[in-house]
Design brief:
single chain; 231 residues; five-stranded mixed beta sheet; 7 helices
Length: 231
């Protein structure tokens, strides 16, 4: 699928830039902190909390979404990671932090679905997800506690649910190329071997999280855009 060209008028680009500086500041969970609990619906009809994964030796919480091309690029690798470590006591759970009403139309250029709960079911079926996929777009309570800065953003916890790694999954967005640094896998392997994670934090890359407060400026921008004279 070819991306839709972003041809936003200048006033809207300025509007977006102005709002970006006014967004609520969030802090990413610090290394060594305990995993915040959550109570979130999964696309399988179940409700999940930390207790749902109490038997995992290593718990991997990854924030992903449907529309983001970077998140999409990592779907197959997340499926493979889940399968590779399933018999080693590692559990992977994905959370969609995006409020679907905060997603701009021009941000759907790489996707045939949005970030709603129903869209999550479609995406998971299409991509054969083998891990729980949870929805936090309604309240974003859990997402605010973890503080993901992009999709994808992965958090790796030890058996005591202390955060030992957070950041990128690996260093190569392009799935056709081989990554040089398997950061998330390195962290998981270290914990399974009873060792400390050598690099506990890496810089994430991907799409910005669609926090609920973005709804307001999207609505205002839509009204302004609709009133712009046609030339």
């Amino acid at each position: 699928m070819k991306p839709i060209k972003n041809a936003l008028p200048l006033f809207l680009l300025l509007f977006v830039a102005t709002f970006a500086t006014a967004q609520v500041s969030r802090t990413t969970l610090a290394t060594g902190a305990l995993a915040p609990d959550f109570n979130l619906p999964g696309i399988d009809g179940k409700t999940y909390s930390l207790q749902s994964f109490k038997d995992a030796r290593v718990l991997v919480v990854v924030f992903i979404c449907n529309h983001c091309p970077t998140s999409q690029a990592y779907e197959d690798r997340l499926v493979k990671l889940t399968g590779d470590y399933a018999d080693k006591g590692v559990t992977v759970v994905a959370i969609n932090p995006n409020n679907p009403t905060s997603l701009r139309l021009d941000e759907l250029g790489y996707s045939d679905v949005g970030d709603s709960f129903d869209d999550m079911k479609i995406r998971a079926t299409q991509r054969h997800f083998n891990f729980p996929y949870l929805y936090d777009g309604e309240t974003e309570i859990a997402s605010n506690k973890y503080g993901p800065v992009a999709t994808p953003h992965i958090f790796v916890f030890d058996k005591d649910r202390k955060l030992c790694y957070n950041g990128r999954i690996d260093d190569m967005e392009n799935p056709a190329k081989t990554p040089k640094s398997l950061d998330a896998r390195n962290a998981i392997d270290a914990l399974l071997a009873g060792k400390e994670v050598a690099v506990p934090v890496t810089k994430t890359f991907g799409c910005s999280v669609k926090w609920a407060e973005k709804q307001d400026w999207i609505q205002k921008a839509a009204v302004s855009w609709a009133n712009e004279p046609v030339k």
